[in-house]
Structures are given as structure tokens and as C-alpha cells.
Amino acid sequence: MDLTVLYRGPLASCDYDCPYCPFAKRRDSTEQLRADRAALERFTAWAASRTGDSLSLLFTPWGEGLVRSWYRRTLVELSHLPHIRRVAIQTNLSGRTAWTAEADLDTLALWCTFHPEQTPYERFVAKSRRLAADGVRHSVGVVGLPQHLVAARRLRADLPDHVYLWINAAEGHSYTDDEAAQWSALDPLFSWSRHPHPSAGRPCRTGESVISVDGDGTVRRCHFVREELGNLYDGSYRGALRPRACPSAVCDCHIGYVHLETLPLYDVFAGGVLERVPAGW
């Protein structure tokens, strides 16, 4: 089986307090952190054991994972397994990056988001440049809010040319054609994010070759459809995998709509679907 898995455990704490994020500056208790670590270790053991499958893994924690040693260790460990095609994580890049030297850089990738109000610009850019110099595959992105435009322009000018800068349309924000053109000058693929994509009744790879898994092992087709398909650890999900149409009216998040079969994004991002790096970038 060739399977893409989006894992989101119970971790919800973050060191940033972005006003557009419901988990900003939230603290997990010691017990909650222990539970998250145990859940991640269980998932890691499952992924390591699936030697008959080909797996692509994206960690999408509500909080910031890379400030926790168990996430860094998991990425390194999984990157060296021959049946893991890609292991990637979404991160604000606030933590140290030296650990990437221990990983297989043919497999590891990072999806990095710059939050202008949360971290010194120079610090973030220095980390991206170091990752690029070390050969760590990564994309960098910004939420497309008006107050972020100047920082995004500066970021595009200062990042290495081969580091893709993506712009996420801000939730609930509409863009005039002139505004969209400004963002598209930085991210030529911004048009895919600008508007939610109609998805009801349309074929999607989620639930067939792509699944979402939580800390208990509950399998769903994606993060945005609550119907359960079974459990990862007892194998009950496997019999439920089949071609499916989307039950939602629209899909407005990249980690969801990138899998719609009615969109050409598997070709646009060929080789970089999970880390959001376009083909040939």
C-alpha cells in the first residue's frame, strides 16, 4: 500500500500568540505532554513496522512540535527507514535546527511559517538560510494579511531563490484583484489559496490513499471530515479505504484541497505535496 498519513496528536501548546490561531500561547500540562509523547511514540512504532507499505508522513500538530525532543527524534528516526518516502512537519521554526544533521535529508522536509509579530525577522531568515545551506528541503510561508505584506516582500528578497515562499489566504479575508496581484507577485501559486474550492461530491484521494490519524489511532479521511474509518492500530481502517467523494461544500485549507482529484495540484507539487514545494522549485 502507498499511503499518505497526516498525524495530529494531542499536543496543543505553542510558544507564539498569533491572533489568528486558537492555540496561541496555550500551555500543556506535564500530564498532557507525557500523553502526547506516548501517542507519538506509538505512532512512530507503527510507521516503523509497516515495512510492506510505502509511507509518506506529515505531522500537523496544533501546537509547535519541534520544541519537543520527541518530535525531533521521531523525524530523525523515521527519515532513515527505507519504506518512508517522506517525513515532514509544519513548524514555526522557533526551535533549534542543528538536529537536522542527524536525519536523512533525502527524506526529511519542513513546512515553515513566518509569523512577523512573533519572532525577530533576522532570526527567522538566518534559520531558513542555514537550512538551505545544509541541504534541508523546506518551504516558507506567510499568512496573507495586509500588515504582513511588507515583511513578505522582504522575506522573498532575502531568502535563497530555491526556497519557495507560499502565501496562505487569511481565513475570512477576501482579496480584490489588485490585492491578489500583490500576493501573486510573491507566490505565483497564490490563486490556489485565494478562494475556497468547491468540493461537494467531487473525488478526493482522502479516504483512499490519504488518511488523517489522531493520538488514539482513530483514522478519518482528513482533518476536516469527522466520520471515522476505523483504527490505525487494530488495522480496521484498511478495509474502509476506497475512492470517495467529498461530503463538504468547500475545502479551503491546503492540506485538504491539495488532495482533490479535480485540481492539478499533485502535478503542481509533484515530489513536494507534503512540504508544499512545487515541482522543479
Oligomer: single chain
Spatial arrangement of strands, main beta sheet: 6-5-4-3-2-1-9-10-11
Give the H and E element order: EHEHEEHEHEHHEEEEEEEHH
| Average pLDDT score | 95
What is the C-alpha radius of gyration, as a whole number of Å? 18 Å
| Outline | globular
Number of helices: 8
The number of distinct β-strands equals: 13
Strand proportion, as a percent range, falls in 15-25%
Global structural class: alpha/beta
Distance between the termini: 28 Å
The helix content, as a percent range, equals 25-40%
Biggest sheet record: 9 strands, mixed
Residue ranges: pLDDT <50 for 5 or more in a row? none
Observed structural traits:
two-stranded antiparallel sheet, 281 residues, 8 helices, alpha/beta
Please explain how this structure is put together.
The chain is α/β, with parallel strands linked by helices and 281 residues long. It has 8 helices and 13 strands. The protein has helices spanning 30-49, 69-79, 121-133, 149-158, 177-184, 191-194, 254-257, 265-268, and strands at 2-8, 54-59, 84-91, 108-113, 137-144, 165-169, 197-198, 203-204, 210-214, 218-222, 225-231, 244-245, 250-251. It has a 9-stranded mixed sheet with strand order 6-5-4-3-2-1-9-10-11, with helices on one face. The chain has a two-stranded antiparallel ribbon with strand order 7-13. Strands 8-12 form a two-stranded antiparallel ribbon. α1 (30-49) packs parallel to α2 (69-79). The longest helix has 20 residues, at 30-49. The radius of gyration is 18 Å and the shape is globular. The two termini are 28 Å apart. It comes from Streptomyces spiramenti. This is Radical SAM protein. InterPro entries: Aldolase_TIM (IPR013785), Radical_SAM_STM4011-like (IPR047771), rSAM_sf (IPR058240).
